[in-house]
Amino acid sequence: MSKLMNKIDFVALIAVDRANANGDPLNGNRPRTDYNGFGEMSDVCIKRKLRNRMQDLGHKVFVQSEDRCDDGFSSLSERATSVMKGEKNRNVYAKKACETWLDVRTFGQVFAFKDAKGVSVGVRGPVSVHQAVSVSPIEVESLQITKSVNGEKGEKGGNRTSDTMGMKHFVRFGLYLLKGSINVQLAEKTGFSYEDAQVVKECLRTLFENDASSARPEGSMEVVKLYWFEHNSAAGQYSSAKVHRSVKVTQKDPMGMPTSAADYEITLQELPGLTPEIIDGL
User: Fold this and answer.
1) Predicted confidence pLDDT, tens digits, the chain (282 residues)
2) Whole-angstrom Cα distance, residue 23 to residue 30?
3) Rounded to an integer, what distance in angstroms lies between the CA atom of residue 41 and that of residue 150?
4) What is the SS3 string spanning 16-74?
């Protein structure tokens, strides 16, 4: 494994076409929006998809979703205990966790479980991911749906229960901007390597592979472009904020309603000495 020597920043453009990018459980699972109508995808949602892709690529992941559990453990506590086996030294505990699970040395993790017998360990990860925000306000549509399948036996010996009603919400179209960075100093502490950074890059490029669902049909979520900036020093030639701002996305017709990524103009402001790798998403 090669040591990560230089700071990395990245920007991804995500197209959402008639899909629920990230439902809000406090708002009837409608797509997340801010008070100005701009769409949002939480960093937690994005990290979940990155972890899923890490698993798909054959890497061990600590925070697994229930439907993707690949080691038979039903809780994080059980998974941690199986590896740590009563380890009390916090530094050794953190080091072993980082060596075992890619997502721990990538995003960090807090280990504070009842059966850990007083051991509480916090790991700060080098990869930070912002919440993704749409470039323009989004239009959310709602569809009334019914379930007419006989899931339960009706009362009084009936053969069929009545239909149940529900709602399905989706974004007509939205182009979201995802930003993130990889910190060299924190990478050194967790053992996050240059090869690990390449895995993160591939996970970002293929973010929605194996992610289809009724809320996100196959092809409705797409990484359009990924801008990968590798600096020439650990501190970086420019601040992350300046690098992220160098990718400018504007709507070609401010009065129109965009229907595809082609309705936006994407430009890259030149930063002397820092040229990004521009990658097409899957």
Assistant:
1) 899 999 999 999 999 999 999 999 999 999 999 999 999 999 999 999 999 999 999 999 999 999 999 999 989 999 998 998 888 899 999 999 999 999 999 999 999 876 555 678 999 999 999 999 999 999 999 988 886 666 666 565 556 566 677 889 999 999 999 999 999 999 999 999 999 999 999 999 999 999 999 999 999 999 999 999 999 999 999 999 999 999 999 999 999 999 999 999 999 999 999 999 999 998
2) 5
3) 35
4) EEEECCCEEHHHCCEECECCCCEEEECHHHHHHHHHHHHHHCCCCCCCCCHHHCCCCCC
Pair of tokens at residue 128? 């930070």
The pair of three-digit structure tokens given for residue 88, joined into one six-digit string: 């009390």
Largest Cα–Cα distance in the chain?
Answer: 77
Amino acid at 218: E
